[in-house]
Fold this sequence. Notes:
The protein is of the alpha+beta class. The chain folds into two domains: 1-38; 57-194, Peptide methionine sulfoxide reductase (Metal Binding Protein, Guanine Nucleotide Exchange Factor, Chain A, Beta Complex), CATH 2.170.150. It has helices spanning 4-38, 72-78, 81-88; strands at residues 57-59, 67-69, 107-111, 117-120, 124-125, 133-134, 143-148, 155-160, 166-171, 182-185, 190-194. The chain has a six-stranded antiparallel sheet with strand order 5-6-10-9-8-7. Strands 4-3-11 form a three-stranded antiparallel sheet, with no helix packed on it. A hairpin with a 5-residue loop joins β8 (155-160) and β9. The longest helix is centred in the N-terminal third of the chain and has 35 residues, at 4-38.
Amino acid sequence: MFRFGGEVPRMKVMMDYLPLVVLGLRVVGVGVQRAVGDGPRAGGGGGAASRPTTQASTQAGEGGVGHIEKSDEEWRKILTPEEYAVLRQKGTERAFTGKYDHHFEPGSYVCAACGLELFTSDTKFDSRCGWPAFYAAKAGDRVKLTRDVSYGMVRTEVTCARCGGHLGHVFDDAPDKPTGQRYCINSVSIKFIPKGKEK
């Protein structure tokens, strides 16, 4: 049997707090929606970091590097199949096959998709990992670092801050370098500009 003397106060307390519970759920819902909306990936099983759109757009971004968005179809027209597979689908070129692995001429390395200067030869070193390695990016606003838990590993993904193209990963395993970091970058994701020919 119900004992109304004990149940009514409990229900009253629940009713008093109901608006707060609803408000809390709405705030959490907005937070989840923003988290999902901020970084959807195009393509199946690990696509581009940029948001899909039907037309290209450029707008002012953080740090003044701007922001470029293109549709998947537009990226396919601009990039080679190899560049598209790595930059937009987060692929990885085979170790020791990239043209910049043992390339140490003075100059700069720009994003192969949008041309943003990302690294310089001053910070490049031979890590013997099979991919071009740098101990620092050109500036903090040139690359974006994101936690990556794909393939059962916990890593830090490096993407171009302007177009969202996948560059590689950064590791804290270079203690003999000024930053202690190793930016492990795919050669196909970057292009070399000789010193004196930079924009």
